[in-house]
Amino acid sequence: MLTLPLPLALSTSALSSHLNTITPALLHLKNTYCAICQGQSTANVANIIFSCPLLASTSHPLTDLGKSQASTAGAALFSLLPTPPALESLALYSSNFTRARETKEIVAEELQP
Length: 113
Description:
The protein is mainly alpha-helical. The protein contains five helices and no strands. It is elongated, with a radius of gyration of 21 Å. The protein starts with 11 loop residues before the first helix and ends with a helix.
């Protein structure tokens, strides 16, 4: 059982009331977030778990299959956008790892009308 200090302790009814005042505000949020995993990389093929930032940012690019996977993900993401898509409101982010950066670039190409 978790015991809260008195200033943080709320009765069930008080907690319910507090949550009801927060929840309506959450219903009006306008942002949508999507996460896409990178496509297959040469490290995946070699069965290497490779996370060293110094090396991963310059090595282990996507394979042809990984490029195809990224393209498919980009097309799927494009299909989820409203018509016409508001591309100026999109932001794509990735790590600096080669595989992630290449995936982001391919996805971005698929988002072009």
